[in-house]
Amino acid sequence: MRTTAFGYSTQCNIKCEHCVAADDTQKSEKMELPQAKELITELDAAQVRGISFTAGEPLIYLDDITELIKLCKRYAIYSRIVTNSFWAKSPDRAENTIIQLKKNGLSQLRLSYSRWHQKNVKQQNILNAAQSCKKIGLDYFISFVTDFSKEDDAYENFLRRHKLRFFPEPVIFSGRAKSFERTPLRTDYQANRCPMNPYIAPTLDMYACCDAGSHFTKTNFFHLGNLQDTPARELFKKSETHVLYNHIRTLGITAIASFAGFRARDIIGYRKCELCELLFNSPNTLEMLQKEAASGLQSWHR
Ligand code: SF4
Ligand code: SF4
Prior knowledge:
By secondary structure, this protein is of the alpha/beta class.
């Protein structure tokens, strides 16, 4: 099923220290509403069946986003909004927003939560938003961004104490989090396969990866093209048929790193996106992998 992350605007009302979406050198960008509507119509024609509104904080533009989810509903496209819950300052305010979103067809709300977000937004907002979703009957989950350090125990306990539905999500050491100290991991040799959800930026540039990969500026490896020049259908096809992207989906980053000569002991010391950056944001390594994509790398499986 074709899905995409949709960056209506990169503007955010807070400034989290770990934000992967932010690059302090870039000014924020925003689509025009009519252009965004046309794009959703085009995505429907390209058989996209799920859209996640993300990038900065989508609900700064609550009325525009409401228009866009209404359009998704008309096309039977599953819609999700990723939000920091700044708007859920009281149970009443949370409920009014959730009613508006649900009435206009939103399928799911994803609440971002972490010790970094919560320096700017009260934990109580998350609770107000989640409890309103339960009351109004809107599907929700909490994305608990963590570096797995002890400091995060209190944040996880808060979610458990209030019986909220949450999933831990490893912090990505990219964007503002690039200089964070890495906590040691205790996992074994994970495959690190990546489903690779594409991302459409407000500039209409489309990337094959919606996370750190859109910041690989030395090689622009994940940049698929711009929707002003190329139809969405073609850019999705490019993403789906790209041999190296498909190796990321099926072989995984770990096997590709091993093929590229990384020692097993070193591989387990990196996070998935860091390893991905070493492989695909290095012009020399990328050139070698491109040459081997349909030969040596093709046979690098058990
Ligand atoms: S992590 Fe989310 S809420 Fe925080 S600054 Fe980035 S876009 Fe805004
Ligand atoms: S591992 Fe690579 S493809 Fe996967 S999310 Fe990270 S940067 Fe993107």
